[in-house]
Fold this sequence. Notes:
alpha+beta; single chain; 4 helices
Amino acid sequence: MKNRYIFFKRLYSDYLLLFTKKEKLIAFNIDNTIISILENSSDTITKILTDKNISYIVVDNLDIIERKNFTNNNYNLYKKKAYLINMSNKLINKYYKDHTDNV
C-alpha cells in the first residue's frame, strides 16, 4: 500500500491521496496528518475535504475511483500547517524528554 502511495504521489503531487481498505478510507504520511487536523466526527472525510476546497483522489488498488479538483486548491496550505504541527510536536517531545531525564 505504501508503494502505491509513493507512485500516485509522484503523479499527483497537489492532491490528497486516499486509499480504500475494507470499505474504509486511509491515508499515509502528510496526508494522514492533514486528515487528523481536519477530522470531524459528524462528517465523512470526503465531505470535509470538499468543504475546505482540498483536491483529493480516492484510489482502489490502482484504479482512481473518485477525483475532485478545485481551482482554488487549499492542499498546499494544509500541507504547510501539517508540517508545522509535526515539527512543533517533535520539538515538544524533545524538550520534555530532555527535561524529564534529569529528574
